[in-house]
Design a protein that fits this description.
This protein is of the alpha/beta class. The protein has six helices and six strands, in the order αβαβαββααβαβ. The N and C termini lie far apart (42 Å).
Length: 197
């Protein structure tokens, strides 16, 4: 699996370089995409926008997602796609369908990390919003330990820690980086731009 993963990365880098050349030549083609693959989530985080105006509705089937990916991403030569939600790990059927259509492209799963990290061959962006006490205050009691255990139980997956910085956790960014440094491939940080936090 490791050899094909390296080949996939090499092909991906080559295609991204090709896209950059196209951009320099003034062709407007998408490089990155994102798909909210589910309206469901197993948490209700204090800062999350997802719950603001959500109403229950029928979700697309795995086959319907295949068609969306073919028509919107593959045909438009999108090189990388992030699968988001809700919680995308609640829809492994959709993840597998999208991965089968996005061959030789880079796919990431943006997750709260509380569900087992299946080795789909995709990268994971896992949300950690502070040290244990702060993270649990934002997301839910005992989620931090569950996330950490899932990462430890699945060393085969590539993990990037994603931290949304807000008024509750801005003081512990360095502590989070120190604690997750050996477990993560990288860190990303974003600022909360709405809400009361």
């Amino acid at each position: 699996m490791r050899g094909s993963s390296n080949l996939k990365k090499l092909v991906g880098v080559t295609k991204v370089a090709y896209k950059i050349i196209q951009i320099k030549l003034k062709k407007k083609l998408p490089i990155l995409g994102s798909a909210d693959i589910t309206n469901s989530c197993n948490l209700k985080c204090k800062h999350c926008y997802w719950w603001l105006n959500r109403t229950p509705r029928k979700e697309l089937s795995a086959d319907e997602w295949r068609n969306v990916v073919k028509e919107k991403f593959v045909k438009n030569d999108v090189m990388s796609i992030s699968l988001t939600g809700g919680e995308p790990l609640l829809r492994p059927d959709v993840i597998e369908a999208i991965l089968s259509e996005m061959k030789w492209r880079y796919v990431t799963i943006v997750t709260n990390g509380t569900l087992p990290l299946v080795d789909f061959g995709a990268g994971y962006f896992i949300s950690i919003d502070g040290t244990e006490s702060i993270h649990d205050a934002i997301r839910d009691e005992k989620t931090y330990r569950k996330v950490k255990q899932n990462v430890l139980d699945h060393p085969e997956v590539n993990v990037v820690i994603n931290m949304t910085i807000n008024s509750l956790n801005y003081g512990c960014v360095e502590d989070v980086a120190d604690e997750w440094y050996i477990l993560a491939r990288a860190f990303t940080f974003q600022l909360l731009t709405h809400g009361n936090n």
